[in-house]
Design a protein that fits this description.
Helix content is 22%, strand content 23%. It contains 17 helices and 39 strands. The strands form nine sheets. Strands 8, 9, 10, 13, 15, 16, 26, 27 and 30 form a nine-stranded mixed sheet that branches. The structure holds 2-acetamido-2-deoxy-beta-D-glucopyranose (5 copies). Residues 215-216, 225 line the site of one 2-acetamido-2-deoxy-beta-D-glucopyranose. Residues 1-24 form the signal peptide.
């Protein structure tokens, strides 16, 4: 074979496998399984619908070989081992459908069958923590203050609530799940504590009342065959939502503090749908179904589709499962995803989901750089450097260590291959992080500098500066661009610049800026659609200390036992704070609908930080509803909201009409649907702006003509007769008129409506999106709705 032929073969081989991989990635790491979603369950007795049975039979018939045995034994269906077990799961309680191993062609043909709403490849979803597990793990000794921007937290227990958590499982031995002082498990609980080799029924108690795992789609690893957490994420999230109070969360003798979850009075049920590799859609749907029949009150999901995939609603297992859960009265709280300013969308945006963004808490981990002359540059990061003894090291800008022939961008970003060993050796190296490489590459850069004999590393990265990461035993810190300029000019002006490492080991914890938003979207870039504002709310998600798996030796300093608590960051950590609060609201107001609970949480949010200044983003600009929805969640406000905005199933169905679903699909999805329901002929964005949501979003607004929306509030204060008056915070140049401007309630649970008209005061069309709010007050309660007027 000639060389060029070989080359050609090699190339085409490469292209083919690349295409396959791309396709697999698009399908969300295909496992060959398709989910067939058939809408609401026909009945609650668990029997399959006829169309469901027929369809499943037709799938099975094609997949099984029928072999006749002796006449006495009759016919038997035999498993076709070449195709694998075709039927993976059936869904029949919470909703209807199944998951099966079928070909793409078969999937397409199933999608045409009557009764089928959608057919889509079983996706692999991701957990919403930032960076790699190893990168995030470090130990500390803080007081665990997982309370969001709190007012007074009331601790009296209400009725029993159960928080279901879809995640990586749980480490039941953690002190956070002790059940001391908890009463009998509520009799309505129908869930299970599934057994496994490393998990017995005695691992469940009055705190951890349920534990299920879902193992039959990616069943190759033992990790799927137990409710036990082998990652840490699920344990962390569960203890944040509802962990019991742990009085001495001491770490390696450094300090002691008290750890407790958002609502320590709540029970926990864990649904293990994720492993180290991600979370299977078919398992997520099965968990939703189980949670609905088990009797949970709140579901907490710190996971979602990668934002690049952006599945449509009926191919998104979370949107589907959540719809049915909400219809059954369960509040579903999800993380908004971690994709920062460079990405395009919030995930988990369906209007029946309570979507949570992440903010910082009043905690800052500083690893400062001290320049000669004792000039201190604030850096962020935690490390366990052994360098204490020698106080002074030379400082070098990586750019100055360029190896001949190396690439400029590479060297300024501390690409290991681009730097000259002799120049790096023994020095603290200043590196950029603007080469578009992902965050994981920080580890590689650290290893590179270390490999060349460098002493330490300071990354210039404004985005990472907001979040403390661990850098293991190597001295590393993250500084801002502004501070970097100062250092670089210092290097320029100083001979033999030095770096005092004495501070680098001490992650000092400062009470500073709280809250500040991170993992957010810039302006409208993140809005999946302009008609319902997302995210709904923000909550602490940065540097959150909570329970950890008990055998994570990789997280322990040399010679120490594994940590019992760990600090990690992400919208994953923000979500369970809100789940805990939703459970508290539910416990005090057991009859409230999920939308009433969401409204209570949103309309009582705060927009100011602990210094009484407006909440900012990590770049210092004042946050907008695009960043934090209604604002930062408060703990006591949602217990007494005064008025709530109740969003009906009908509103959600109208949203589905707007999203392009036809009436037959919508009829199949909804358990109860008014017989005269029809998608409105003019199901446009303005129509959806009118669904009774606690926030208002208007698209294509340029001021002329004016746009109107109406809203309806329910008086839930229990005070009977009361009068609310409106106040409007209008953006400049926009006239906001509310009619009527007074709402006179005569009794509890009364509903009253109002209309808002937005118009421009200026002749020229609006060029930029504008924000404001509408607040109803009766002297006792403040009920605030943010609004967004988008020019797009
Ligand atoms: C999961 O795997 C275990 C062990 O193989 C098996 O006993 C169990 O039936 C499986 N469960 C499901 C739901 O498939
Ligand atoms: C440092 O000096 C070099 C060469 O004189 C100059 O190009 C560079 O802009 C200076 N950098 C700073 C940050 O002052
Ligand atoms: C932790 O314990 C689990 C369950 O006993 C085990 O399967 C896992 O391999 C252990 N992990 C480590 C890192 O030792
Ligand atoms: C929608 O349009 C159809 C035909 O144009 C009409 O018969 C029907 O009444 C309209 N429905 C509504 C809700 O406006
Ligand atoms: C908006 O509402 C006001 C007050 O009810 C009404 O007068 C006006 O006609 C409405 N405008 C539009 C565009 O619907």
């Amino acid at each position: 074979m000639k060389g060029n032929q070989l080359f050609f073969l090699f190339c085409s081989f490469f292209i083919v496998s690349f295409l396959d991989e791309t396709r697999a990635a698009q399908a969300g790491n295909s496992n060959g399984v398709y989910i067939v979603y058939m809408g609401a369950a026909a009945s609650t007795n668990g029997l399959l619908r006829d169309d469901h049975v027929d369809l499943m039979n037709s799938v099975l018939r094609r997949k099984f070989l029928m072999i006749y045995l002796t006449p006495l034994q009759g016919a038997a269906w035999y498993y076709d081992s070449t195709k694998g077990n075709a039927l993976v799961r059936t869904y029949r309680h919470g909703f209807s459908g199944f998951a099966a191993r079928v070909s793409e062609e078969e999937a397409r043909s199933i999608a045409q069958k009557p009764g089928v709403v959608s057919v889509f490849p079983d996706p692999l979803l991701q957990l919403h923590t930032t960076r790699s597990w190893d990168f995030l793990k470090y130990q500390t000794s803080l007081e665990v203050d997982s309370k969001p921007n709190s007012d007074s937290e009331s601790s009296s227990p209400g009725s029993d609530t159960i928080i279901g958590i879809l995640d990586t499982g749980i480490w039941p031995e953690s002190e956070s799940f002790n059940d001391e002082g908890m009463g009998e498990i509520p009799s309505r609980w129908k869930g299970l504590c599934m057994k496994a080799d490393d998990f017995s029924s005695s691992n469940c108690n009055r705190k951890l009342i349920g534990a299920r795992f879902y193992n039959n789609t990616d069943s190759s690893t033992p990790e799927w065959y137990t409710p036990r957490d082998m990652v840490g994420h699920g344990t962390h999230v569960a203890s944040t939502a509802a962990g019991s109070t742990v009085a001495t969360a001491s770490f390696y003798g450094l300090a002691t503090g008290t750890a407790k979850g958002g609502f320590p009075g709540s029970r926990i049920a864990i649904y293990k749908v994720c492993s180290t590799n991600g979370c299977r859609g078919s398992a997520i749907l099965a968990a939703f179904e189980d949670a609905i029949t088990d009797g949970v009150d709140v579901l907490s999901l710190s996971l979602g589709s990668p934002s690049i995939l952006r599945p449509n609603l009926m191919s998104d297992p979370i949107a589907i499962g959540a719809f049915h859960a909400v219809e059954s009265g369960i509040t579903v709280v999800c993380s908004a995803g971690n994709d920062g300013p460079s990405s395009t969308t919030v995930v988990n945006t369906a209007p029946w989901i309570l979507t949570v963004a992440a903010s910082t808490i009043d905690r800052d981990f500083q690893s400062n750089l001290v320049l000669g002359g004792n000039k201190v540059i604030k850096g962020e990061g935690i490390n366990f450097s052994p360098l204490q003894k020698s106080p002074v090291y030379p400082l070098i800008n990586a750019e100055a260590a360029k190896k001949s022939g190396a690439n400029e961008v590479g060297v300024r970003n501390c690409d290991p291959g681009s730097m000259d060993k002799d120049l790096i050796k023994g020095k603290i190296v200043i590196c950029n992080h603007d080469d578009g490489a992902d965050d994981y590459s920080l580890n590689r850069k650290i290893d590179g500098v270390k490999g060349l004999g460098g002493t330490g590393i300071a990354f210039i990265d404004d985005q990472s500066r907001a979040v403390a990461y661990t850098y293991g035993a190597f001295p590393a810190t993250v500084i801002t661009t502004k501070d970097a300029e100062e250092i670089l000019s210092y290097i320029n002006s100083t001979r033999g610049p030095t770096y005092d490492t004495r501070n680098i080991l001490k992650a000092r914890i400062l009470d500073l800026r709280s809250p500040m938003l991170v993992f957010y979207c810039r302006a409208h870039a993140c809005l999946a659609n302009m008609v319902v504002l997302q995210p709904d709310i923000s909550a602490p998600g940065v540097d959150i200390l909570a329970a950890w798996i008990g055998n994570d030796t990789s997280a322990a300093p040399q010679g120490k036992e594994p940590p019992l608590f760990n600090v990690i960051s992400g919208t994953s950590m923000a979500c369970p704070h809100v789940s805990g609060i939703a459970a508290t609201v539910k416990s005090r107001n057991f009859a409230w609908s999920p939308s009433a609970i969401r409204s209570a949480i949103m309309t009582t949010a705060t927009q100011t930080n602990n210094l009484k200044a407006p909440i900012t983003t990590d770049s210092g600009s004042i946050a907008t509803p695009y960043d934090y929805g209604a604002g930062e969640v408060t703990t006591s406000g949602p217990l007494q909201p005064g008025l709530v905005y109740e969003t009906s199933t009908l509103d959600y169905l109208n949203y589905l009409c707007y999203s392009g679903h036809d009436i037959s699909a919508i009829e199949a999805i909804a358990k109860t649907i008014p017989s005269d329901f029809a998608c409105p002929n003019d199901s446009n964005a303005d129509y959806i702006s009118n669904i009774n949501y606690p926030s208002i979003a208007i698209s294509k607004f340029n001021g002329k003509p004016s746009k109107n929306v109406s809203r309806t509030v329910t008086n839930v204060a229990g005070d009977g007769e009361t009068v609310y008056s409106v106040s409007v915070d209008a953006p400049s140049g926009v006239n906001v008129e509310v009619v009527p401007d007074e709402l006179r309630f005569t009794k509890n649970n009364e509903k009253l409506s109002y209309q808002v008209t937005f118009s421009s005061l200026s002749v020229s069309p609006m060029k930029e999106d504008a924000f404001g709010s509408i607040t109803w007050t009766n002297g006792k309660y403040r009920v605030r709705s943010p609004f967004v007027l988008s020019v797009r």
